[in-house]
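Run log, item B.
One chain of 135 residues. Sequence copied directly from the ordering sheet:
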Amino acid sequence: MELRAEPKALSLLKNNEYAHPAGEEDFDTEWLSLILGVKVVGGLDEAIAHIHEHSTEHSESILTNDLANANRFVDEINSAAVYVNASTRFTDGGEFGLGAEVAVSTQKLHARGPMGLEELTTYKWVVIGDGHVRE
């Protein structure tokens, strides 16, 4: 596992052997591995702005005890799957009952090739958890 942390986060993780300085592209990279970009933000506004700047609109998650923040996050994040207090790893595979690989697309619109009205319809999945992780 590796953490790619911006300076403020890196200072908080200074004794963590897995923490390394984040590079210029680290928040725009889909790792497909056990690498996590870590950024400390000043609040929900900054978090949402960061997501809007760097997101692929595939899946986003918030960890919070504040219901108002959770609701605002769900409302303002335009991703295919939005999680509250649950791991984004649930997006992989058949967790939504869509088949083994349907939910693996790394963009919001999954269809390829000729498209009709059905293929142009997209969904926004909202998952509310209590610290749930996928095993």
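Observations after the first pass:
- The radius of gyration is 16 Å.
- Residues 109 and 120 are 8 Å apart (CA to CA).
Flagged for discussion on Thursday.
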